[in-house]
Write a structure and sequence with these properties.
Helices cover 28% and strands 28% of the residues. It has 365 residues and is α+β, with helices and mostly antiparallel strands. The strands form three sheets. Strands 5, 6, 7, 13, 14, 15, 16, 17 and 18 form a nine-stranded mixed beta sheet that branches. Strands 1, 2, 9, 10, 11, 12, 19 and 20 form an eight-stranded mixed beta sheet that branches. Strands 3-8-4 form a three-stranded antiparallel beta sheet. Helix 1 packs parallel to helix 5 and helix 2 crosses helix 8.
Length: 365
């Protein structure tokens, strides 16, 4: 039976970033990933946006780790040649009532440490986005985009360079507390680990139950996307957002020009019962057109086609507006560190989450 300091369950960006941060301190680390390669779920099925840290309650982990993680992420992309763009984004107001909401958002962002925002008028909007209609917008120059698939591969390479053991195609079968940690049984290997990191995304609640940890509930929320057809992609130059969804379930269906030139519209937010239902009852393109025609009046349903989907791991019920990241030791077994409920802005925050997990692991080791 292999002995390692840390076993990380989950090979998405949270798990990989945590493994890297821990390995950089000299600990032996193994990452167990059930899919054939890392990052095949929410890590690469998202908008690919690097968030500034505008929306989240001040003092929350989402606010702190997003602001910290944003700059860590830009630096990582530069160092590892990950395609990205600090392109900025516009959060567009349709009328004077919405302008007052923008002002409130700007105050929230400033309290979170985002100090580069500016409320701009119609002329500024038209210079950056000639086809977008709005009376004013909140301009966020530190928001950007990233090619998430390349980012995952770069994280995996970095992990291997640090001698992290990556075990793709390996499922957690069973786990039990040991006198000095955990015995971890997978479909292919058996380990003794001083510490276990639960970074299993949609299945973090199942992992906690398998190990005998505290009860967690992960709510799968599907986000669907449409795309603007190639002939009409010039309608969007960067990132264009409406005001955030009043329900708290998302930032609103927004338009994103990706690093490779595609333009996506989404995501929606639909609570599911199944964690793997990516396709049933898809929103038709007309639904996406209805959500975006106020932003771009010249956009027509024929200009859209259905895009991909993703499922985010939320800890907020459908009737709750907010749930924070869960990054802390398990209440029953402090040697198990949870990095769970990592929905948006999890991609932006992942390197900061990894650093937080490392500090918690250091306390155990």
């Amino acid at each position: 039976m292999e002995r390692v300091n840390v076993v990380v369950i989950g090979g998405g960006v949270t798990g990989l970033a945590s493994a890297i941060a821990v390995a950089e301190r000299g600990s032996s680390v193994c990452v167990v990933e059930r899919h054939p390669r890392p990052g095949l779920e929410a890590s690469t099925h998202n908008s690919g946006v690097i968030h500034a840290g505008i929306y989240y309650p001040t003092g929350s982990l989402k606010a702190r780790l997003c602001v910290d993680g944003r700059e860590r992420l830009y630096a990582f992309c530069e160092a590892h040649n990950v395609p990205h763009a600090r392109c900025g984004k516009l959060i567009v107001a349709a009328d004077t009532v919405e302008v007052r909401i923008l002002e409130t958002l700007a105050l929230q962002a400033k309290a979170n440490g985002v100090d580069d925002l500016e409320i701009v008028g119609r002329d500024f909007i038209r210079r950056r986005e000639p086809h977008v209609e709005g009376v004013a917008a909140l301009w966020s120059p530190s928001t950007g985009t990233i090619e998430s698939e390349t980012f995952v591969r770069a994280l995996a390479r970095k992990a291997v360079e640090l001698d992290v053991i990556l075990l793709p195609g390996t499922r957690l079968e069973h786990g039990m507390p040991h006198e000095s940690g955990f015995e971890v049984i997978t479909s292919n290997e058996r380990f003794l680990a001083d510490t276990l990191v639960n970074a299993a995304g949609l299945y973090a609640d199942d992992v906690s139950a398998t190990i005998g940890g505290e009860p967690l509930t992960i709510y799968p929320v599907r986000g669907e996307y449409a795309e603007i057809v190639p002939a009409k992609r010039q309608l969007v130059n960067g990132l264009v957002y409406p005001l955030p969804d009043p329900s708290g379930h998302g930032l609103g269906i927004h338009l994103t020009r990706t690093t490779w030139g595609n333009v996506t519209i989404g995501p929606t937010a639909r609570y599911l019962t199944a964690k793997d239902d990516y396709e049933s009852n898809r929103v038709p393109v007309e639904g996406f057109h209805q959500a975006t025609k106020r932003l771009i009046p010249s956009l027509k349903p024929v200009d859209l086609r259905l895009g991909g989907t993703g499922i985010r791991a939320r800890m907020a019920r459908s009737d709750e507006r907010f749930a924070d990241f869960l990054v802390r030791p398990d209440c029953r077994y402090p040697r198990m560190i949870h990095a769970a409920g990592i929905d948006s802005p999890g991609l932006t925050a992942c390197l900061a989450i990894g650093a937080a997990v490392r500090d918690l692991v250091d306390d155990v080791l």
